[in-house]
Design goal:
Blueprint: E1 21-25, E2 28-32, E3 48-54, E4 62-68, E5 87-90, E6 96-101, E7 108-113, E8 121-125, E9 147-151, E10 154-159, E11 180-186, E12 193-202, E13 217-226, E14 229-236, E15 241-247, E16 255-262, E17 285-289, E18 292-300, E19 308-314, E20 338-339, E21 342-345, E22 351-353, E23 374-377, E24 388-393, E25 398-409, E26 412-418, E27 422-427, E28 434-440, E29 443-450, E30 457-469, E31 473-480
Parallel strand pairs: 20-25
Antiparallel strand pairs: 1-2, 2-3, 3-4, 5-6, 6-7, 7-8, 9-10, 10-11, 11-12, 13-14, 14-15, 15-16, 17-18, 18-19, 21-31, 22-25, 23-24, 24-31, 25-30, 26-29, 26-31, 27-28, 27-30
InterPro entries: Glyco_hydro_43, Glyco_hydro_beta-prop_sf, Glycosyl_Hydrlase_43_Enz
Keywords: Carbohydrate metabolism, Glycosidase, Hydrolase, Polysaccharide degradation, Xylan degradation
Protein name: Glycosyl hydrolases family 43
Length: about 475
């Protein structure tokens, strides 16, 4: 029997878990994150859930249910405030502690459970030794995107939010400072500040003469340890990239390491490499599974920033401790490229562009669709078995998939619907020589159209589909044979 393949996004098509923090507890890997709605109107509208998979089968994810509800926080009894990106750690006492903020409240809340799947119960707010809540006082550092890390029995809490000075988000700070990323050490109760805060990565206005120039801190604090070195993962001021900083200590002396991944497939330091996917904010972290390290991150769907889905990629840790930047792929957690045969859903695309390329989704602009292709569903949030597909392909739109291991591919077919006749040009390189062309006729329902017989295609390749026509095309799936 053929082993089940893993894809990006790795969760079911109707699940929207951004800001993923992956952890191995026992023989399973768990992912914790925010919880968006399909076609949402704001970030993080749903309650927290978690998913898990066996460490030896990263294609078989299991829904563990709701682990914590918005209205469990005493500051949110009506449930009207959304819970932003959480993080979790197993404390010195063996209990599991979940850290989060309610929207832009600037206060870090903590929930507690005996198991990694909950149910979690409210535990308290991070506080100073005198009992005052951290983030409540004028002059406090603004609390956002907490990252929790237990190093042996010492407990470190990371936080920070530093948009550009012109950003209207700074108006929400209400007298609290936005300076970059910083760290507290907590007591073993996981709640009380022992020391800090101490700045570890600067904001953009303070980064010019540091190693963080051009990659200053914005948000999304997360800490990991590899060997004897500490890796602070964060979203830079460019937002679409996850970066890392390295130190021999968990609370000081960090230097910029590099970019791990961009959810627009952009290399910021090479200005001639343009976006290959519509991008926005990014948040995630690293995990080691069976001696292989992965980066977990999210992509954007439905033409805006409020319906984000979980993705992951293999990464390489070099002998000097550096991490090579990786690209977005369709195979993600799969052990290598996908098989070059069978039917694949178009929703696993890792390249998505209009004839003018791809660009950034704006945070508060809903449905930036226009002539842009976007990934969407046929049903609303919570309904059973929605169909996810790529909508709104116009003349020159490109959808790409990386990568397949082709073995004598000689035919392919596409399942699409279109309001006018057109063609799909297929190639193995972006803007490269076409491999074949598939004629598409106007059809109101998704229908199959096949290529002529191809010369055998072999090896590890990408596939790119470009629509040429005057109408609008929706792309559901394709078949390789």
């Amino acid at each position: 029997m053929m082993k089940k393949q893993a894809f990006n996004p790795y969760l079911p098509s109707d699940e929207y878990i951004p800001d993923g923090e992956p952890y191995v507890f026992g023989d399973r890997v768990y992912v914790y994150g925010s919880h968006d709605q399909f076609n949402g109107k704001a970030f993080c509208e749903n309650d927290y859930v978690t998913w898990s998979a066996p460490i030896d089968d990263l294609a078989s994810w299991r829904y563990e249910g709701i682990i914590y509800k918005k209205n469990q926080d005493p500051h949110n009894k009506t449930g009207k405030k959304n819970m932003f990106a959480p993080d979790i750690a197993k404390g010195p006492d063996g209990q599991y502690y979940l850290y989060y903020t309610l929207g832009f409240s600037g206060v870090m809340s903590v929930a507690k459970s005996e198991t990694p799947t909950g149910p979690f119960e409210f535990y308290g707010h991070v506080k100073y030794p005198d009992g005052n809540i951290v983030g409540k006082q004028t002059g406090d550092v603004f609390q956002f995107d907490p990252g929790i890390f237990v190093d042996d029995e010492r407990v470190y809490l990371y936080s920070g939010f530093a948009p550009k000075k012109t950003s209207p988000l700074r108006l929400l700070s209400k007298g609290r400072r936005m300076v970059g990323a910083y760290v507290f050490e907590l007591e073993k109760d996981m709640l009380t500040v022992k020391s800090g805060p101490a700045l570890i990565v600067p904001q953009v206005s303070d980064a010019k003469d540091t190693s963080f120039n051009n990659h200053a801190f914005f948000e999304a604090s997360s800490m990991r340890k590899m060997g004897e070195r500490y890796y602070f993962i964060y979203s830079s001021i460019h937002e679409h990239e996850l970066c890392y900083a390295i130190s021999d200590y968990p609370d000081r002396d960090f230097v910029f390491g590099g970019t791990i991944i961009s959810n627009g497939n952009i290399d910021v330091d090479q200005q001639d490499r343009q976006a290959e996917y519509y991008y926005g904010n990014n948040h995630g972290s690293l995990v080691e599974i069976n001696n292989q390290w992965y980066v977990f991150y999210h992509r954007h769907t439905n033409g805006h920033m409020f319906s984000r889905q979980a993705c992951a990629e293999k990464i390489t840790i070099n002998s000097n401790g550096s991490i090579d930047q990786v690209e977005m792929t369709s195979c993600g957690l799969n052990n290598g490229p996908l098989l070059g045969q069978g039917e694949y859903e178009a929703r696993i695309a890792s390249v998505l562009m209009s004839d003018k390329g791809a660009n950034r989704y704006r945070p508060w602009a809903i449905l930036n669709k226009y002539r842009q292709p976007y990934i969407t569903e046929t049903k609303q949030d919570g309904e059973d078995r929605p169909i996810q597909y790529i909508a709104n392909m116009h003349d020159g739109s490109v959808v790409g998939f990386k990568y397949f291991n082709m073995m004598n591919l000689n035919k392919l077919a596409i399942k699409v619907k279109s309001k006018m006749n057109g063609k799909i040009l297929v190639s193995t390189e972006l803007n490269g020589k076409q491999m074949t062309a598939i004629d598409v006729k106007s059809c109101e329902e998704f229908s199959w159209f096949s290529s002529r017989e191809l010369e055998n295609v072999e090896g590890i390749v990408a596939l790119y589909f470009m629509f040429i026509g005057e109408g609008v095309l929706d792309f559901l799936s394709f078949e390789l044979s």
